[in-house]
Design brief:
GDSL esterase/lipase At5g03610-like; alpha/beta; disordered N terminus; single chain; 8% strand; 11 helices
Length: 351
């Protein structure tokens, strides 16, 4: 490569790094520099995915991304998702998606804030959706450590955010046609999740936050029969069992680990608070009704027919709705959840 081409390549990477940071930055919480984590590593599913999912998936088609960044960009929302708000809280820019880094050829300039390995639709096991399960995501991370893309020094000030939204359970219900046998399956899921959390910590990450499951029975596919007025308490009871078991598991992990690095982000409580309009952020739409809703019973947002006609309806203002689509909050919905979580994040991440 001649000098001019090398200079252009370096300049390109430098500009891409700046633009990536500007695009993903979320103004907000200030964290003192002496306790600010240096890097954030993200694992999980669509509640955390900021652009890893295959571009054939819904997150890459209109109207996803209409609020931020103004076009589809791989987030399962009209804008930012929970991982963006966790980064915001830590005073970091959202770390680059693993797939974006692989295709950039720019290397180190994009790694300043860590990396996001989350893929929409995934779980601790294989699901009905495409994408690498959490074990494989951790494999990606481990390979980068072995290749010295990230060093032991990078991990000294690192934290991890792990999202498990329930795709394993959705797969179980879809495959079996009912919730039968779900309770025994929950134990298997939580046990595998514990193995994953221990492995992330064993690789050198100092603090690991893992999400509890949201009130599953309040998701639009389970509330549509009541015109989005009532949650399905049968499914919520199974979620309650998952969250109870997860709490017991995390307590056990912390007893077994010297520095007690694991803690839970209570999405059940924060979702419930937002849905009931109990927080400072209020929603005009019936909170259980999504902004983007398929015209059939399939709930798909963004689908069009062979002539390009929309097979979905879209609310006038996404800020008025807690849910964006059948499973994911809007950007405003995530803001409400984040607002309810800030005290927990401060208690565990910054002490």
């Amino acid at each position: 490569m001649d000098t001019q081409k090398l200079l252009c390549s370096v300049l390109c990477c430098f500009l891409l790094s700046i633009l990536s940071g500007r695009q993903q930055a979320v103004q907000g919480h200030y964290v003192p520099s002496d306790i600010r984590p240096l890097k954030l590593f993200v694992f999980g599913d669509s509640y955390a995915d900021t652009g890893n999912t295959n571009k054939s998936q819904a997150a890459w088609i209109f109207p996803y991304g209409i609020t931020f960044p103004g076009k589809p960009a791989g987030r399962f929302s009209d804008g930012r998702v929970l991982a963006d708000y966790v980064a915001k809280f830590l005073g970091l820019e959202s770390p680059i998606p693993y797939e974006g880094w692989k295709s950039s050829s720019c290397g180190i300039p994009l790694l300043k804030h860590g990396m996001n390995f989350a893929y929409g639709g995934t779980g601790v096991f294989d699901t009905i959706f495409p994408g690498p399960k959490m074990t494989v995501q951790i494999d990606f991370f481990e390979h980068l450590l072995k290749d010295n893309v990230f060093t032991a020094k990078d991990l000294e000030g690192s934290v991890s955010f792990v999202s498990l939204a329930g795709n394993d359970y959705f797969t179980h219900i879809s495959t079996n046609g009912s919730a039968e046998g779900l309770q025994s399956f929950i134990t298997t899921v939580v046990n595998q999740l514990a193995i994953n959390l221990k492995r992330i910590h064993g690789l050198g990450v100092k603090k690991i936050a893992v999400t509890g499951i949201v009130p599953f029975g309040c998701l639009p596919p389970f509330t549509g029969k009541s015109s989005f007025q009532q949650c399905n308490e049968t499914y919520n009871s199974f979620v309650g069992f998952h969250n109870l078991l997860l709490n017991q598991t995390v307590e056990k992990l912390n007893r077994e680990t010297k520095d007690s690095p694991f803690f839970i982000i209570d999405l059940y409580a924060s979702f419930t608070s937002a849905i009931k309009n109990e927080g400072s952020i209020k929603f005009e739409n019936p909170p259980l009704k999504p902004c983007c809703l398929g015209v059939s019973s399939e709930y798909f947002c963004g689908r069009v027919d062979e002539n390009g006609a929309k097979l979905y309806t879209l609310c006038e203002n996404p800020k008025s709705a807690f849910f964006w689509d059948a499973a994911h909050p809007s950007q405003q919905g995530w803001r409400a959840v984040y607002s309810a979580l800030q005290a927990t994040l401060e208690q565990y991440f910054l002490h």
